[in-house]
Design goal:
Radius of gyration: 20 Å
Distance between the termini: 23 Å
CATH class of the largest domain: Mainly Beta
Shape: globular
Number of strands: 19
CATH topology of the largest domain: Jelly Rolls
Structural class: mainly beta
Number of helices: 7
Order of helices and strands: EHEEEHHHEEHEEHEEEEEHEEEEEE
Largest sheet: 6 strands, antiparallel
CATH superfamily of the largest domain: Jelly Rolls
Amino acid sequence: MINYPIKFAPILKDKIWGGTKLKNLFNKQAESETTGESWEISNVPGDISIVANGTMAGKSLTEIIKEHKGDLVGEKIYQEFGEKFPLLIKFIDAKENLSIQLHPNDQLAKERHNSFGKTEMWYVMDADADSKLNVGFTKDLDKESYLEALNSGKILDILNFEEVSKGDSFFIKEGLVHAIGAGCLIAEIQQTSDITYRIYDWDRVDSEGNSRELHTELALDAIDYKFNKDFKCKYDKITNKSSNIASCQYFTTNYVKVEGQVNKEYKEIDSFVIYMCVEGEAEVSTGQISENIKKGETILIPANQKQVAIKAKEAELLEVYIK
């Protein structure tokens, strides 16, 4: 029986825009000075998470799904996804701006890459003064007006930038042009996909003078050209209660501030539950088995564990599952 909170070994990613916060603030075992991402739970081919604790330590996420099936992920989720874990969970440190990018929807991603598309969300764990994110355009565009701005070097003139601070959250639909800005430390929840169309990279080059590949043509049929302002999430911060930040067919994410003890019941949810600690430290228990989780750490509760106790002097968690 799978009956304990599962931790995985982080998969660290060196990025041209990355920094040292994941190492210095979260104690990730990074050797690089440009570590941009910590993949906390991943089933992306070539980057499969390995269990770091308990009786299953050393086994891959794929192996434990194969062994425990619906007991781990939920019966309906197992029937739909099989041994593919449906979410990719990350922490991101942007010392510099990420590229302006977007992700295709499920249909395009399947046709072109035999992959899922990517809908995602961001929770801002910390942000330097004047940090910004790009989310969408400043007005309605079409393919022609977008290409005119891109080819004339005026792409930044049509991009919408949002100043951010700790606790802000954004829902990034498929096709929405976006970029994490310099100085942002982000928790990211997304579909399991590593398909990104890069449309602008700030004219930067690597140490050998090479620019990164742009995906101008692939992006044209994937971009959402409409202007909208529905990307910033509004949510409550009620102590010891789950407050919804974002919900879609791919995931539900709630904010939970814990002071003392919170007892959670998941009898109505046929899904695993993920906790991402975004502030403080907490003890997470399933029955007699407990694990501590600190800021910058992630834990997975198997779907068959319907009662969870969370104890903390003070902690803030993201609670993630699939309805």
